[in-house]
């Protein structure tokens, strides 16, 4: 008897078809929209395996509707959408996609940092809106990235990849992390700093820490007030790490120079969100890992976990 697999999104057929060998598959038939919660709760009623995206909350409520669930595989490295202790309590396994998106995400973080510092989206709007009349010295002047100090909060795989890119721009790298990264300090000259010191001394603060109970609202009004008035804040981790109201007020009052955000507390972000009214905020729709090669590799890690489970083999990349 084949196992029942539910997929919460329409994924490209090339990743789904090989699974038919082991699974009876049902999937939400839309690629771009999230499955409505009530439909998801109904769909998991008899499934043994669930393949989800970060838009799907796998929590107590969902688990209480899924008595046969044995495995959840998540198309992301971050797994704040999954209540891991609740899974553990029920002996349900879960996997994610670490490693394969490190460089792609670090590239995007650096792109966002450059775009924010050099006002690239604002400059493009200026040209397209017909505002470009001549060249003049103080036109669209931004901040230098080369030689500046970058402070990275969260020095995991992606944080370290961002830091290595920063070295290429002759930046001084400060970092804050639960654990010291002695090897990276010795090899690249990265400097450990307390959160306060990092916020006070950095021209660019980049958030790369995972989202969990210790990092919810980590950057609030008090922390933003420690930053220099001409500093830039970049977040490509998870929206809830920053208090968005506090960020809006800080920017509005001219107490911070700009922010670059790939992630938001609520995604997709509402078009009337106050942060979107500010010209010095660069916004992206959570595209950190969005290259064809990387998204393919992420899907393949999930497929491999599903194939291994189907064949009764041990699973890699477990998070439970
Ligand atoms: C994307 O945000 C991920 O966690 O992979």
TrEMBL record:
Q: Name one GO molecular function term.
A: NAD binding
Output the Pfam families linked to this UniProt entry.
2-Hacid_dh (PF00389), 2-Hacid_dh_C (PF02826)
Domain D-isomer specific 2-hydroxyacid dehydrogenase NAD-binding: residue ranges? 110-288
Which Gene3D superfamilies does the record match to this protein? NAD(P)-binding Rossmann-like Domain (3.40.50.720)
Catalytic activity line of the entry: glycolate + NADP(+) = glyoxylate + NADPH + H(+); (R)-glycerate + NAD(+) = 3-hydroxypyruvate + NADH + H(+); (R)-glycerate + NADP(+) = 3-hydroxypyruvate + NADPH + H(+)
Q: Does the keyword Nucleotide-binding apply?
A: no
Entry keyword set: Oxidoreductase
**Residue ranges constituting the D-isomer specific 2-hydroxyacid dehydrogenase catalytic domain according to the UniProt record:** 7-319
| A GO cellular component entry from the record | cytosol
What EC number(s) does the entry state?
A: 1.1.1.79, 1.1.1.81
**Family, as annotated:** Belongs to the D-isomer specific 2-hydroxyacid dehydrogenase family. GhrB subfamily.
Name used for this protein in its record? Glyoxylate/hydroxypyruvate reductase B
Q: Which organism is it from?
A: Lysinibacillus sphaericus
